[in-house]
Amino acid sequence: MASKDGSMGSMGEVFAGRYELVDPLASGGGGVIWRVWDQRQKEYRAGKVLKQSHSDSLLRFMRETSWRVEHRNVITPLGWVGEDDKVMFTMPLIRGGSLAQIIKEEGALPPAWAVSITRQLLDALTAVHDQGLVHRDIKPANILLEPTATSIGGEPFIYLSDFGIAAPIGDPRMTRASEVIGTPGYMSPEAQYGADPMPQQDIYAVGVVLLEMLTGRRPPSEGVPTIPPAAAALPMGQYIAQLLDEETRRPQTAREAREKLLATPLPPSAPRPIVIPDRIPDWPEGWTDAGPDLYANRTTVRSDVIPLGATASTLPAGQQFPMQPTAGQNQHRPAPGWGENSPSTGRSASQALHAQSPGTMYPPTQGPGGTLVLPPPPPGMPRGGHFGQPSRPQQFVGGIAAQPNGGVLTRIGAWPAWSGWGLVLVGLACIAIALLLMGG
User: pTM for the whole thing?
Assistant: First the structure.
C-alpha cells in the first residue's frame, strides 16, 4: 500500500536506510504521516514525509527540531533525515489523537477533566518559557493525548506539540506587519497587531482553550471570545476572564496562572467519564508490538518436508523414514551447477547458490543406503555445514539426508565439512612432507 501521493513513500520502503514505512496514518500540511519502524533503535515512531518543494512546511519543522525542551508534557521532533527530494521528521508515536478530536466528539468536557488538561498545559508552558521561548500556537489541535488505558489514574495525559512557529521571548518579528503568525481565534489581541513574542500571549491562548473545553464551542476568528453570563459569575469564569484580560493584567507567567488555577473552585457538574480511544490502526500483516514479524508468511507446513532436527521418534503424525516421492513427482536433481557430489560447470559453490532462483524447491527421493534426500531448507534457514554449525555456503550444494536409524537430519551432496583445525593440520602435514623431501 502506498500513500495517496505515491511519491511520499510506500509500505515496506526503508527511508534513508533506517526508517521502514509501516503504514500511513494521516496526510495534510503538504506531507504524509507514517508509522515507521526505527531499525536502529528498534521502536515505532511517527514520521512525516515532506517534499523539499514544500518550503513553508520544511521551514517550520526545521525550526521545531532546533528547540529542545525537556518536560514530560512537551513533545518535539526527535530528528530528521533526507533522501532524494524528500525529508522525514520523526517524533514519538502518540496514540490518543488531539484534544480537538475529543472536543469534536464529546462537546463540552467535565470541569475536572478540563482543569487537569489546563494544569498540565501550564506545566508544559512553564518549562517552555523557562527556556526563553514563546510557543505562539496554543490550540486544541496541538495538544495530544494518551489513550485512556495509558493515562495516569484515569486522568487525561497531554503533550504540547508543534513548535514550528515558536520564537525566543522578545525576538523582533522577521515578517511583514501584514502577516499573522498563529491561529486566528487563539491569538491574543497584541499578537494580532504584530507585538514581539511574549509569554503572556501563550497564557491568553490557554484561557481560550479552557473556555472551549467547558463550552464545547470554538472561539470566533476575530475578537475576544465571550464567557457565557451564567459562567462569568462563577470563580472559574472569573479565572478565565483574567487570562483573557489585557496583557498587563493577565498572570505574567505560566507558573502564576497555574497557582491561581489550583486555587479556583470547580463549577458544579455531574460526573461524566471520557474515554480516549487508541486511534492508531491495528498492525498491518507482518508487524507486531515488537516490530516486524520475522516469521510472517512462513507458517505453511509441507507434508513432504521433515522438520529440521527431527528424529524418527519426533516426526509429526503421518511422516516416517524413509519417505518416498509421491506419484508423478520428478526424481531429485542437484542444485543448479552441481553433479553428484562435485562441480559440473566449473562454478564455485557460492556462485551456484547465488544462481539458484529464490525459493526453488526439489522433490524428495530415495538416496544411497536407504537415506532420503529432501528439498533445500526453507527461506531463512542456514545454508552451510551441519545444522547448528556456522553457515558456510561453499560446503552445501545438495539436499538433506534423513537417517532411517532415527539420527538427526544432516546434509549430503556437499564437500567435506572441514573444520578450521582440520585445514591447519593438513597444511602442517604438507609442510612436514616438503621438509622431508628437501632433507632427502
Answer: 0.65
Tell me what pLDDT residue 273 has: 84
How many CA within 13 A on the CB side of residue 118? 31
User: What are 108's three cell numbers?
Assistant: 463540552
Q: Annotate 341-351 with b (16+ C-beta within 10 A) or e (fewer).
A: eeeeeeeebee
Q: Quick one: pLDDT at residue 312?
A: 52
Answer for the pair 121, 140: CB distance below 8 angstroms, yes or no: no
Residues pairing with 37 in the sheet: 20, 44
Residues 6+ apart with CB under 8 A from 128: 69, 71, 74, 134, 135, 160, 166, 202, 254
Q: Is the pLDDT of residue 162 over 50?
A: yes
The answer to whether residue 316 scores a pLDDT higher than 50 is yes
Contact criterion met (CB below 8 Å) for 206 and 257: yes
Q: What is the pLDDT of residues 225-234, one digit of tens each?
A: 999 999 999 9
CA distance 412 to 435: 37
Mean pLDDT across the chain, nearest whole number?
75
pLDDT class of 29 with cuts at 50, 70, 90: low
Radius of gyration of the chain (CA): 34
Q: What is the largest CA-CA distance in the chain?
A: 118
Q: Provide the grid cell at 184.
A: 486566528
Distance of alpha carbon 310 from alpha carbon 322, whole angstroms: 13
Closest by CA to 161, choosing from 43, 254, 64, 87, is 64
Give the contacts of 163 (CB within 8 A, at least 6 positions apart).
Answer: 63, 64, 67, 69, 76, 133, 135
Is residue 46 within 8 A of residue 93, CB to CB? The reply is: yes
- The H or E element that residue 47 is part of is strand 43-51
Q: What is the 3-state secondary structure (H, E, C) of 375-426?
A: CCCCCCCCCCCCCCCCCCHHHECCCEEECCCCCCCEECCECCCCCHHHHHHH
What's the CA gap between 240 and 251, in Å, rounded?
11
For residue 50, the surrounding DSSP H or E stretch is: strand 43-51
Q: CA 302, 307, 311, 313: dihedral to nearest 10 degrees?
A: -60
Kindly state the percentage of the chain with pLDDT values over 70.
Answer: 60
Q: What are phi and psi of 356, to 5 degrees?
A: -70, 135
Paired strand residues for 26:
33
Whole-number Cα distances in Å, 272 to 106, 117, 149? 10, 16, 17
